[in-house]
Design brief:
Radius of gyration: 17 Å
Number of domains: 1
Strand content: 15-25%
Number of strands: 7
Distance between the termini: 31 Å
Structural class: alpha/beta
CATH topology: Rossmann fold
Oligomer: single chain
Largest sheet: 7 strands, parallel
Order of helices and strands: EHEHEHEHEHEHHHE
CATH class: Alpha Beta
CATH superfamily: NAD(P)-binding Rossmann-like Domain
Helix content: 40-55%
CATH architecture: 3-Layer(aba) Sandwich
Number of helices: 8
Strand order of the largest sheet: 3-2-1-4-5-6-7
Length: 251
Amino acid sequence: MTKTRVAMVTGSARGIGAATARRLAQSGASVAVVDLNEDACQETVAAIHSAGGTAIAVGCDVSKANQVQDAVEKVVKDLGGIHILVNNAGVIRDNLLFKMSEEDWDMVMNVHLKGHFLCSRAVQKYMVEQKYGKIVNVSSTSALGNKGQANYSSAKAGIQGLTKTLAIELGQFNINVNAVAPGFVETDMTKATAERVGVNMEQFKEYAAKEIPLRRVGQPEDIANVVNFLASDEAGFVSGQVIYVAGGPKA
Protein backbone atom coordinates (compact mmCIF):
# COMPACT_ATOMS: atom_id res chain seq x y z
CA MET A 1 0.00 0.00 0.00
CA THR A 2 1.42 3.37 -0.97
CA LYS A 3 1.45 6.54 1.07
CA THR A 4 -1.28 8.00 -1.15
CA ARG A 5 -3.98 5.61 0.07
CA VAL A 6 -6.67 7.05 2.31
CA ALA A 7 -8.73 4.71 4.48
CA MET A 8 -11.96 5.34 6.36
CA VAL A 9 -12.64 2.89 9.20
CA THR A 10 -15.99 3.10 10.96
CA GLY A 11 -16.38 2.07 14.57
CA SER A 12 -12.65 2.48 15.09
CA ALA A 13 -12.52 4.09 18.53
CA ARG A 14 -11.82 0.67 20.04
CA GLY A 15 -11.76 -3.07 19.43
CA ILE A 16 -11.49 -4.52 15.95
CA GLY A 17 -11.94 -1.11 14.34
CA ALA A 18 -9.10 0.47 16.29
CA ALA A 19 -6.77 -2.44 15.52
CA THR A 20 -7.71 -2.19 11.85
CA ALA A 21 -7.07 1.56 11.74
CA ARG A 22 -3.65 1.05 13.29
CA ARG A 23 -2.81 -1.80 10.90
CA LEU A 24 -3.79 0.15 7.79
CA ALA A 25 -1.72 3.09 9.01
CA GLN A 26 1.21 0.75 9.54
CA SER A 27 0.87 -0.24 5.88
CA GLY A 28 1.12 3.38 4.84
CA ALA A 29 -2.48 4.56 4.60
CA SER A 30 -3.72 7.87 5.97
CA VAL A 31 -6.63 6.89 8.18
CA ALA A 32 -9.92 8.52 9.13
CA VAL A 33 -10.87 7.12 12.52
CA VAL A 34 -14.67 7.26 12.54
CA ASP A 35 -16.96 6.64 15.47
CA LEU A 36 -20.15 7.96 17.01
CA ASN A 37 -18.23 10.33 19.26
CA GLU A 38 -15.25 12.20 17.80
CA ASP A 39 -13.61 12.51 21.21
CA ALA A 40 -13.66 8.72 21.59
CA CYS A 41 -11.54 8.45 18.44
CA GLN A 42 -8.62 10.40 19.89
CA GLU A 43 -6.91 7.43 21.51
CA THR A 44 -6.72 5.55 18.20
CA VAL A 45 -5.60 8.71 16.39
CA ALA A 46 -2.90 9.31 19.00
CA ALA A 47 -1.63 5.74 18.67
CA ILE A 48 -1.31 6.16 14.90
CA HIS A 49 0.42 9.51 15.28
CA SER A 50 2.88 8.13 17.85
CA ALA A 51 3.81 5.40 15.38
CA GLY A 52 4.54 8.01 12.73
CA GLY A 53 1.30 7.69 10.79
CA THR A 54 -1.37 10.12 9.64
CA ALA A 55 -4.89 10.04 11.08
CA ILE A 56 -7.87 12.25 11.80
CA ALA A 57 -10.90 11.76 14.05
CA VAL A 58 -14.38 11.99 12.60
CA GLY A 59 -17.64 11.81 14.53
CA CYS A 60 -20.48 10.12 12.65
CA ASP A 61 -23.65 8.12 13.25
CA VAL A 62 -23.43 5.69 10.33
CA SER A 63 -27.18 5.10 10.41
CA LYS A 64 -27.81 8.74 9.39
CA ALA A 65 -27.34 9.49 5.69
CA ASN A 66 -26.54 13.18 6.16
CA GLN A 67 -23.88 12.45 8.76
CA VAL A 68 -22.31 9.79 6.56
CA GLN A 69 -22.18 12.16 3.60
CA ASP A 70 -20.62 14.90 5.74
CA ALA A 71 -18.05 12.46 7.14
CA VAL A 72 -16.98 11.22 3.72
CA GLU A 73 -16.67 14.78 2.42
CA LYS A 74 -14.53 15.68 5.43
CA VAL A 75 -12.25 12.69 4.83
CA VAL A 76 -11.79 13.62 1.18
CA LYS A 77 -11.16 17.28 2.03
CA ASP A 78 -8.77 16.70 4.95
CA LEU A 79 -6.87 13.64 3.67
CA GLY A 80 -7.06 14.20 -0.07
CA GLY A 81 -9.29 11.37 -1.23
CA ILE A 82 -10.73 8.02 -0.25
CA HIS A 83 -9.48 4.65 -1.47
CA ILE A 84 -10.39 2.19 1.28
CA LEU A 85 -13.58 1.84 3.30
CA VAL A 86 -13.83 -0.56 6.22
CA ASN A 87 -17.42 -0.89 7.41
CA ASN A 88 -16.98 -2.01 11.00
CA ALA A 89 -19.34 0.08 13.16
CA GLY A 90 -21.75 -2.02 15.16
CA VAL A 91 -23.81 -2.43 18.30
CA ILE A 92 -25.46 -5.34 20.08
CA ARG A 93 -28.92 -5.46 21.63
CA ASP A 94 -29.11 -9.17 22.39
CA ASN A 95 -32.27 -10.89 23.57
CA LEU A 96 -34.42 -13.89 22.89
CA LEU A 97 -37.07 -13.31 20.25
CA PHE A 98 -40.01 -13.02 22.64
CA LYS A 99 -38.13 -10.42 24.68
CA MET A 100 -36.67 -8.44 21.77
CA SER A 101 -38.19 -5.01 21.25
CA GLU A 102 -38.80 -3.40 17.90
CA GLU A 103 -36.40 -0.65 18.96
CA ASP A 104 -33.63 -3.19 19.62
CA TRP A 105 -34.26 -4.78 16.22
CA ASP A 106 -34.17 -1.43 14.42
CA MET A 107 -31.08 -0.18 16.25
CA VAL A 108 -28.97 -3.20 15.28
CA MET A 109 -30.23 -3.34 11.69
CA ASN A 110 -29.73 0.40 11.20
CA VAL A 111 -26.19 0.58 12.54
CA HIS A 112 -24.93 -2.62 10.92
CA LEU A 113 -26.77 -3.19 7.65
CA LYS A 114 -28.02 0.30 6.86
CA GLY A 115 -24.71 1.76 8.00
CA HIS A 116 -22.78 -0.49 5.63
CA PHE A 117 -25.13 0.54 2.82
CA LEU A 118 -24.93 4.28 3.50
CA CYS A 119 -21.14 4.37 3.82
CA SER A 120 -20.63 2.24 0.72
CA ARG A 121 -23.02 4.38 -1.28
CA ALA A 122 -21.27 7.58 -0.16
CA VAL A 123 -17.75 6.45 -1.05
CA GLN A 124 -18.54 4.69 -4.32
CA LYS A 125 -18.86 8.02 -6.15
CA TYR A 126 -15.18 8.77 -5.50
CA MET A 127 -14.05 5.22 -6.11
CA VAL A 128 -15.91 4.97 -9.42
CA GLU A 129 -14.45 8.27 -10.63
CA GLN A 130 -10.88 7.21 -9.83
CA LYS A 131 -11.54 3.60 -10.95
CA TYR A 132 -10.03 2.24 -7.79
CA GLY A 133 -11.39 1.22 -4.42
CA LYS A 134 -11.39 -1.36 -1.68
CA ILE A 135 -14.46 -1.93 0.49
CA VAL A 136 -14.17 -4.39 3.36
CA ASN A 137 -17.30 -5.18 5.36
CA VAL A 138 -17.36 -6.78 8.79
CA SER A 139 -19.82 -9.63 9.14
CA SER A 140 -19.68 -12.34 11.82
CA THR A 141 -19.97 -16.06 12.37
CA SER A 142 -23.29 -15.09 13.97
CA ALA A 143 -24.58 -14.77 10.38
CA LEU A 144 -24.91 -18.55 10.59
CA GLY A 145 -27.31 -18.20 13.53
CA ASN A 146 -26.76 -17.55 17.22
CA LYS A 147 -29.19 -17.82 20.12
CA GLY A 148 -30.32 -14.47 21.47
CA GLN A 149 -29.11 -12.57 18.41
CA ALA A 150 -31.96 -12.61 15.90
CA ASN A 151 -31.30 -8.94 15.08
CA TYR A 152 -27.50 -9.19 14.98
CA SER A 153 -27.45 -12.48 13.05
CA SER A 154 -29.89 -11.13 10.48
CA ALA A 155 -27.86 -7.95 10.01
CA LYS A 156 -24.58 -9.84 9.68
CA ALA A 157 -26.11 -12.25 7.15
CA GLY A 158 -27.47 -9.27 5.21
CA ILE A 159 -23.99 -7.78 5.10
CA GLN A 160 -22.77 -10.88 3.29
CA GLY A 161 -25.47 -10.48 0.65
CA LEU A 162 -24.67 -6.79 0.33
CA THR A 163 -20.97 -7.60 -0.09
CA LYS A 164 -21.54 -10.03 -2.94
CA THR A 165 -23.99 -7.70 -4.70
CA LEU A 166 -21.69 -4.68 -4.49
CA ALA A 167 -18.79 -6.78 -5.77
CA ILE A 168 -20.87 -7.57 -8.87
CA GLU A 169 -22.02 -3.97 -9.39
CA LEU A 170 -18.72 -2.23 -8.71
CA GLY A 171 -16.22 -4.69 -10.14
CA GLN A 172 -16.24 -3.04 -13.56
CA PHE A 173 -14.84 0.09 -11.90
CA ASN A 174 -11.88 -1.78 -10.35
CA ILE A 175 -13.49 -1.75 -6.92
CA ASN A 176 -13.03 -4.84 -4.75
CA VAL A 177 -15.70 -5.60 -2.17
CA ASN A 178 -15.13 -8.33 0.40
CA ALA A 179 -16.14 -9.23 3.93
CA VAL A 180 -14.53 -10.74 6.98
CA ALA A 181 -16.62 -12.76 9.41
CA PRO A 182 -14.92 -12.87 12.80
CA GLY A 183 -15.57 -15.63 15.28
CA PHE A 184 -14.97 -15.16 18.99
CA VAL A 185 -12.75 -12.08 19.37
CA GLU A 186 -11.83 -10.58 22.72
CA THR A 187 -13.39 -7.09 22.69
CA ASP A 188 -15.64 -4.93 24.84
CA MET A 189 -18.58 -6.22 22.81
CA THR A 190 -17.67 -9.80 23.68
CA LYS A 191 -17.45 -8.82 27.35
CA ALA A 192 -20.97 -7.45 27.09
CA THR A 193 -22.11 -10.79 25.70
CA ALA A 194 -20.45 -12.60 28.60
CA GLU A 195 -22.36 -10.38 30.99
CA ARG A 196 -25.59 -11.16 29.15
CA VAL A 197 -25.15 -14.90 29.59
CA GLY A 198 -24.02 -14.49 33.19
CA VAL A 199 -20.38 -15.64 33.13
CA ASN A 200 -17.13 -13.82 33.74
CA MET A 201 -14.94 -13.06 30.75
CA GLU A 202 -12.17 -15.54 31.59
CA GLN A 203 -14.66 -18.40 31.85
CA PHE A 204 -16.29 -17.26 28.64
CA LYS A 205 -12.95 -17.25 26.81
CA GLU A 206 -11.96 -20.64 28.22
CA TYR A 207 -15.24 -22.21 27.12
CA ALA A 208 -15.01 -20.64 23.66
CA ALA A 209 -11.40 -21.74 23.14
CA LYS A 210 -12.35 -25.37 23.70
CA GLU A 211 -14.70 -25.16 20.71
CA ILE A 212 -12.14 -23.50 18.41
CA PRO A 213 -9.77 -25.79 16.50
CA LEU A 214 -6.80 -23.49 17.17
CA ARG A 215 -7.70 -23.63 20.88
CA ARG A 216 -7.57 -19.91 21.46
CA VAL A 217 -9.89 -16.96 21.06
CA GLY A 218 -9.22 -14.26 18.51
CA GLN A 219 -7.66 -10.88 19.11
CA PRO A 220 -8.60 -7.68 17.24
CA GLU A 221 -5.25 -7.82 15.44
CA ASP A 222 -6.18 -11.21 13.95
CA ILE A 223 -9.07 -9.57 12.13
CA ALA A 224 -7.12 -6.41 11.29
CA ASN A 225 -4.44 -8.42 9.49
CA VAL A 226 -6.99 -10.02 7.16
CA VAL A 227 -8.72 -6.70 6.52
CA ASN A 228 -5.34 -5.17 5.71
CA PHE A 229 -4.72 -7.88 3.11
CA LEU A 230 -8.14 -7.40 1.50
CA ALA A 231 -7.51 -3.64 1.37
CA SER A 232 -4.16 -4.14 -0.36
CA ASP A 233 -3.30 -4.49 -4.02
CA GLU A 234 -2.08 -8.01 -3.27
CA ALA A 235 -5.78 -8.93 -3.05
CA GLY A 236 -6.52 -7.31 -6.40
CA PHE A 237 -8.26 -10.40 -7.83
CA VAL A 238 -10.26 -11.18 -4.70
CA SER A 239 -13.80 -9.83 -4.66
CA GLY A 240 -17.23 -10.85 -3.40
CA GLN A 241 -15.73 -13.16 -0.79
CA VAL A 242 -16.61 -13.73 2.86
CA ILE A 243 -13.60 -14.88 4.84
CA TYR A 244 -14.35 -16.49 8.18
CA VAL A 245 -11.60 -15.48 10.60
CA ALA A 246 -12.56 -17.77 13.43
CA GLY A 247 -9.70 -20.13 14.25
CA GLY A 248 -11.28 -22.94 12.25
CA PRO A 249 -13.74 -23.74 9.44
CA LYS A 250 -17.18 -22.21 9.38
CA ALA A 251 -20.06 -22.38 6.90
